[in-house]
Amino acid sequence: MDEPFWHIIANPAARGGAMQKDWPTIEQTLQKLGFSYNVQFTQRRGHAAELVEKALLKGGRYILGIGGDGTNHELVNGIFSQQFAPPSELTYALLPYGTGNDWARQYGISHHIEERLKRLRTPETVWQDIGLARYAHNGEKATRYFVNVAGMAYDGFIG
């Protein structure tokens, strides 16, 4: 089997900017472990979804997100909103780098960079149920995909 080429989409603002500060260590570990990859850093809210769609359109099938629950949410929405790459043909992984990391904790994903990246060398595939919320936003119909939790109205303000 050919070595997978990973499209890394990283949120430099994750964990209060710690991800950006730690990027040299992450990159050094990727190189040490022999990963083939490119990396793109998000620049604004919603950018992760755009970047993952572009990676998939160019033929990417291995996606590694680096960020927290918000980054994970955006990437999942980018994957499931596009129409050209069946999600069942993709491998998606997350290097948890947020403050809550609820989804990563659900799967026992390590926060230790090298340990997590080593697991990607011989990945264990797990199917994930995806929810779809349909709602009205500013009088317009809208949809959002979610992986572990969803909240609306007051939930969005209480945080």
Walk me through this protein's architecture.
The protein is α/β, with parallel strands linked by helices. Helix content is 39%, strand content 24%. It contains 6 helices and 6 strands, in the order E-H-E-H-E-H-E-H-H-E-E-H. It has helices at residues 14-32, 47-57, 69-81, 102-106, 113-121, 154-158, and strands at residues 5-10, 36-41, 62-67, 91-96, 131-137, 140-146. Helix 2 packs across helix 3. The protein is globular and about 50 Å long. The termini are far apart. 28% of the residues are buried.
Structure keywords:
alpha/beta; Rossmann fold; 24% strand; 6 strands; 159 residues; 6 helices
In short:
The chain has helices spanning 14-32, 47-57, 69-81, 102-106, 113-121, 154-158; strands at 5-10, 36-41, 62-67, 91-96, 131-137, 140-146. The protein is of the alpha/beta class and 159 residues long. Helix 3 (69-81) links the parallel strand 3 (62-67) and strand 4.
Helix/sheet category: alpha/beta
Distance between the termini: 44 Å
Number of domains: 1
Whole-angstrom Rg: 16 Å
Helix fraction, binned, reads 25-40%
The low-confidence runs, each spanning 5 or more residues with pLDDT under 50, are none
* CATH fold group: Rossmann fold
Strand order of the largest sheet: 2-1-3-4
Number of helices: 6
Total strands: the figure is 6
CATH class: Alpha Beta
Main pleated-sheet profile: 4 strands, parallel
